Amino acid sequence: MGRDLGPDCRLCRREGEKLFLKGARCYTHKCAVSRREYAPGQHGVKKGKLSNFGVQMREKQKIKRIYGVLETQFRNYFLKATAIKGVTGHTLLQFLERRLDSVLFNAGFAKSRTDGRQIVSHNHVSVNGRRVNIASYLVKPNDTVEIKTDAKSLNTLKANVEVTKERKVPAWMQADGANLSIKILRMPTREDVTFGVNEQLVVELYSR
Which of 43-47, 76-80, 131-135 is predicted with the least confidence, judged by mean pLDDT? Predict the structure, then answer.
């Protein structure tokens, strides 16, 4: 299972905006983007005008980092999206939103998608009564996602729910914080993706 093991705050600084990769830290004065509003590295302070290709590449990198996927997996999602009737960019985001780690994050059961990935990989999650430990598992309408774990981990998850209770749960799912369960009501749509990304730039990049 490939993943980026580098410092998360460095990724946010590289994109020049908060990607909310560190959970609660991103909302405090400790956020690296708030403290150092320039790219990391020796030449991070310098800014130059990006070419069209550069703009497209930066947008692709931003979406990959938000969802915590590497290049091969991201490209596979894109290829699947092109094979499905509809707007390719919207379908791509739909695949990413349906990932199990992203579902836990959107429901408020994880402080970040990385945290959601860890919960899944530690075998704490079941879908329709069956244990699933693959973070990239794609949920579908009428699925029921439940977190079943020991008392120690349960307290941590309850604390996550308390920390994230101000976060708005997307309309395509229904979250039950008391029982740590999620009901998938429908497929996510483009309107359910609230952070600022331009998926059309990714489509243009891969269509070169």
Answer: 43-47
Q: What angle, rounded to 10 degrees, do the helices at 71-82 and 88-97 form?
A: 130
pLDDT at 1: 45
Residue 7 tokens read as: 């410092």
If you ran DSSP here, which 8-state letter would residue 182 be given?
E
Please give the backbone phi and psi of residue 126, each rounded to the nearest 5 degrees, phi first: -125, 145
**Checking DSSP bridges between strand 125-127 and strand 181-184, what pairing results, if any?**
unpaired
Our CA angle for 99, 123, 147, nearest 5°, is 70
- The SS3 of residue 113 is helix
Spatial distance between the Cα atoms of 163 and 109, rounded to a whole number of angstroms: 9
Task: Please list, in sequence order, all residues whose beta carbon lies within 8 angstroms of the beta carbon of residue 79, skipping any fewer than 6 positions away.
Answer: none
Q: Residue 63: phi, psi to the nearest 5?
A: -65, -40
**Number of neighbouring beta carbons within 10 Å of residue 203:** 19
